[in-house]
């Protein structure tokens, strides 16, 4: 008998939910400044989940770092942060917010980036538009020495059904990952899946 959860092709389901964007335009070109001001006013609910794993000797990769919402507080708590962000407009907002001396910014997609491994790898609100989540997640895991964190909303945006946290959880289980789960107390009900990289 086929298990209805692990026997289902969650990667194919994910691909059906993602509208693949084409072209090289920076979709954030017009929206980055407004986005930066909005997120600056909100409490960072992910930091309490990361807190037990942070320390002055730790290194972090923030995949899809955006305007630096997590980068700047992390840089104050760890030895080094590598921010991977493909959008020039988002990187401009990150640089305008201030670049600490222990920050490396890689202007590239995650798929093309070649950062050094880090203790922790975080990926917050990025996977919604990733059509091939399995290799993306496998790369997160391959570059994490201690722990991977993925944060996603668990509700649909006004634009309609997109991948959400429950899809991520089921996909991870299909991949053989048994993540710890934390739900964050915000209106979009994001969830965080985190786990120790498999050897």
Structure overview:
With 199 residues, the chain is of the alpha/beta class. The chain is built from seven helices and seven strands, in the order αααβαβαββαβαββ. It has helices spanning 10-17, 32-40, 47-50, 71-75, 88-96, 133-142, 165-174; strands at residues 59-63, 80-84, 103-106, 118-124, 144-152, 180-183, 191-195. A seven-stranded mixed β-sheet has the order 3-2-1-4-5-7-6. Helix 1 packs antiparallel against helix 7.
- The rough form would be described as globular
Q: Counting H and I runs of at least 4 residues, what is the number of helices?
A: 7
The count of DSSP E runs of length 2 or more, i.e. the number of strands, is 7
Radius of gyration: 16 Å
The largest beta-sheet arranges its strands as: 3-2-1-4-5-7-6
Strand count, sense and barrel status of the largest sheet are:
7 strands, mixed
- Give the rounded overall mean pLDDT: 87
* Strand fraction: 15-25%
Helix coverage percent of residues? Answer: 25-40%
Return the string of H and E elements. HHHEHEHEEHEHEE
- Terminus-to-terminus distance: 30 Å
Unreliable segments of 5+ consecutive residues: none
The assigned structural class equals: alpha/beta
List the helices and strands and how they pair.
Blueprint: H1 10-17, H2 32-40, H3 47-50, E1 59-63, H4 71-75, E2 80-84, H5 88-96, E3 103-106, E4 118-124, H6 133-142, E5 144-152, H7 165-174, E6 180-183, E7 191-195
Parallel strand pairs: 1-2, 1-4, 2-3, 4-5
Antiparallel strand pairs: 5-7, 6-7
Helix pairs in contact: 1-7
